[in-house]
Specification:
alpha+beta; about 20% helix; ten-stranded antiparallel beta sheet; eight-stranded parallel β-barrel; about 30% strand; binds (2R,3S,4R,5S)-2-(hydroxymethyl)piperidine-3,4,5-triol; 36 strands
Length: about 725
């Protein structure tokens, strides 16, 4: 054939192409383009900014990844695979061809399913995509179905795969440790394999996180540049990998961590992988964060559109030293400051083994009547008297060697059959076997009993303070031991969903030794997470900055605590501690009796002012302005109401030197044509800021910004090396 006729033929095929199987999945700002021609491999052609229909039609002429959208192992062996199967005849090779496709409209979203089949085996994979109509987010997952006569074994089973064009791509992810969770890591994506993983078994965000961003235009910028965001919605072990070999593409895979977790699928069994949520923005990292936050509030976070209460938690105030009088006084004190909820933390339970320290009684969820003679109902009565709500701490997935529960049910813990268990916290802690339906019933029953006896409990802090340290389910059969991690989290999901069905209005915090459960696997059932056991305001700026990449302020529990800080021993002035805590879901974690009258007044004022800005903080759009990680001596960010008629601006100095020259911060997210009046909140200065009560256009505030004084104007004996500001902007 002559060259001209070949070109003509290609053009004809191209014109007909949509009819042959192109699927355009889109949101208002994003497109995902697939080639789903029957009998062929399912290919991913494009993911990014929304395409016009003619661009979509002609995409293959522009050059595409031309990759299998869900690459199986076996016929392209050197490549990484999303799926690896040992078929019933022992073969490790899988091939998947498009069988049929469907799209269903579900109101706020549409779900496209592409069913693939192995031509040689009755083995099916349905690749699914849910595209939202009101937020730029596409969730993908797979449903893997064995129709072979005997069982097959899955050794890799990612939720999703995405090719990302090489160039100057940078990866942003979070990393940390206990009391230092959620630190931002930014690094170029280089040849080789980058793996972000978790194998804790219980808590999956204490070290790495299951959410990442890819900046496509070099070193990430907060408010410009193209960025892809991805969040694996899973509460257990995960593996995110970026493989860069000899092609023009980085290959991104995300799913349950398959290590020590191979999965047997019996005939007719279907395994559904967790969702991988994908988003895109050309407004930098903050743009992707806004997409995650909106999606979370609307679809992925319990009560995402309900304002959160301002609370006092008892932990750092009294630790295990719980008693009725102390609780009553703490409730009176938080109520007097304008707080709305009191949460009694660890230490309230245990009869045979009173919980006075961390080495006993988990599982014995009965009030210690020596500490609390009036029981929980007595405490609720006190809370009512003070006009606030009451919440309580539990750690229901765990037990201790020293507990009545373990004495009765030694068969309920995770342990290997022939070995003594390894113990966790307190040298005695053990993880319950959530694969076991009896354990699931026990945990649901624990919450149910608490709630039935005390229907006015408003809030539960659900803690989890141990990793899986013993491989072995005493419930699962011998040939399913490798499914222990997955079954634990299936059990956890069943428990959560049963509790939520019965108690849909309860507020529940996900705590796991601090920030160990900040992930979109748990958040559909939980209203918020405890960012970290480290409440030091300076270090919180860094951790909350990281958490805000993926999670909205409404979900980030952020408490004012005592000084010297219990984790860092740093002494930060109360004004600064308040200004940091007010950028999340404000609370207190302190013994108010140890505060001076002046400090109480400052907190009372802060709580009153937080109530004014609460809708903007908790429902607003985030714009991070100056990163603490850039070492410029300050950090600054803001929230703008969706209508841009109100905004809250935060400015925290992170270093202090004489003759320092901090950058003047330009705001973002405002309406350039609106005129905003400026009011400082939590003011301690003896004179107002020069711009207090003045009005500036959004354009000026975003182009030039305000000169924020480096120090506070206070009496000489009150001067110190800290400085922070919170400004409230209201459009006229
Ligand atoms: C760990 C949590 O992170 C703390 O806030 C506190 O609840 C303790 N557990 C209680 O044991």
């Amino acid at each position: 054939m002559k060259r001209k006729s070949i070109v003509a033929l290609i053009t004809l095929v191209a014109a007909l192409y949509p009819a042959f199987g192109q699927i355009h999945i889109s949101t208002s700002g994003m497109s995902l383009l697939l080639d789903a021609e029957k009998g062929c491999n399912l290919k991913i052609l494009y993911f990014g900014d929304r395409l016009s229909s003619s661009d979509a039609e002609n995409i293959m002429f522009s050059g595409t990844a031309d990759r299998n959208a869900y690459p199986p192992y076996g016929l392209d062996c050197p490549s990484e695979a999303a799926l690896a199967v040992i078929h019933s005849d022992g073969s490790l090779a899988t091939e998947l061809k498009v069988e049929d496709t469907s799209t269903a409209d579900n109101g706020n979203s549409s779900v496209t399913k592409i069913r693939l089949k192995d031509p040689e085996y009755p083995f099916y994979v349905t690749v699914c995509y849910r595209a939202y109509k009101d937020v730029d987010m596409i969730e993908t997952w797979t449903e893997i179905e064995n129709r072979e006569k005997k069982s097959v074994v899955l050794t890799e089973f990612a939720s999703g795969f995405l090719p990302i064009r090489r160039g100057n791509v940078w990866l942003c992810h979070l990393h940390g440790a206990w009391a230092n969770e959620g630190n931002v890591v930014q690094e170029p994506v280089l040849p080789g394999m980058k793996i972000i993983k978790n194998k804790d078994g219980v808590r999956n965000s204490q070290t790495s996180h299951a959410e990442v961003m890819f900046s496509l235009d070099g070193k990430p910028m907060e408010n410009s540049g193209r960025v892809i965001g991805a969040a694996l919605c899973y509460s257990g072990n995960y593996e995110l990998k970026i493989d860069t070999g000899d092609t023009d593409w980085h290959f991104f895979f995300a799913g349950i961590n398959p290590d020590n977790s191979s999965l047997k699928l019996a005939p007719k069994e279907v395994f559904k992988t967790p969702e991988l949520a994908l988003t895109y923005s050309d407004e930098g990292l903050s743009g992707v964060s806004r997409n995650f936050h909106k999606w979370a509030r609307n679809y992925r976070l319990a009560h995402g559109n309900t304002l959160r209460k301002i609370l006092l938690n008892s932990w750092e105030g009294v630790y295990f030293d719980i008693d009725e009088n102390k609780m009553d006084r703490m409730m009176a004190d938080i109520a007097s400051m304008g707080g709305e909820l009191f949460v009694m933390d660890d230490g309230w339970f245990g009869v045979k083994y009173p919980r006075n320290q961390d080495d006993c009684a988990l599982g014995d969820w009965v009030v210690d009547s020596k500490k609390l003679p009036g029981g929980i109902s007595g405490l609720i009565g006190m809370a009512k008297k003070h006009g606030i709500d009451f919440g309580i701490w539990i750690e229901p997935e765990m037990t201790n060697k020293i507990s009545e529960l373990y004495e009765t049910h030694p068969d309920w813990i995770l342990k290997s059959p022939l070995r003594e268990p390894v113990y966790g916290r307190g040298g005695t802690q053990l993880v319950l076997d959530l694969a076991n339906p009896e354990v699931q019933d026990f945990i649901v029953g624990t919450v149910d009993a608490l709630m039935t006896e005390n229907p006015d409990i408003d809030y539960i802090k659900w803690d989890a303070n141990m990793s899986v340290m013993n491989h072995g389910s005493q419930y699962l059969p011998d040939d399913r031991q490798s499914e222990m991690y997955i079954e634990y989290h299936r059990g956890f999901e069943k428990i959560c969903s049963r509790i939520r069905t019965k108690y849909p209005d309860l507020t529940i915090q996900a705590c796991a030794s601090g920030g160990g459960r900040a992930n979109y696997g748990v958040l559909p059932w939980f209203d918020e997470f405890w960012v970290s056991d480290n409440t030091d305001a300076l270090q919180r700026i860094y951790m909350q900055w990281g958490a805000s990449y993926f999670f909205p302020a409404i979900a980030m529990a952020s408490h004012i605590s005592a000084v010297p800080n219990h984790q860092t021993y740093r002494t930060v002035p109360l004004k600064y501690r308040i200004d940091v805590a007010m950028s999340g879901r404000l609370g207190m974690e302190i013994q108010p009796r140890n505060m001076t009258e002046e400090e109480i007044d400052l907190c009372r004022n802060a709580i009153a002012e937080y109530k004014i800005i609460r809708p903007v903080v908790q429902f607003g759009d985030i714009y991070r302005l100056v990163s603490p990680y850039d070492g410029l001596g300050l950090a600054s960010m803001m929230y703008c109401s969706p209508d841009k008629d109100k905004a809250v601006f935060y400015w925290w100095k992170t270093e202090h030197f004489r003759d320092e020259h901090l950058p003047r911060v330009r705001m973002a997210g405002l309406d350039p044509d609106a005129e905003y009046s400026i009011q400082e909140l939590n003011r301690i200065d003896t004179v107002p800021l020069p711009f207090e009560g003045k009005t500036f256009s959004g354009r000026f505030l975003m182009e030039t910004g305000l000169e924020i004084p480096y120090t506070h104007t206070v009496a000489s004996e009150d001067r110190n090396d800290w400085s922070s500001r919170v400004l409230y902007l209201v459009a006229k």
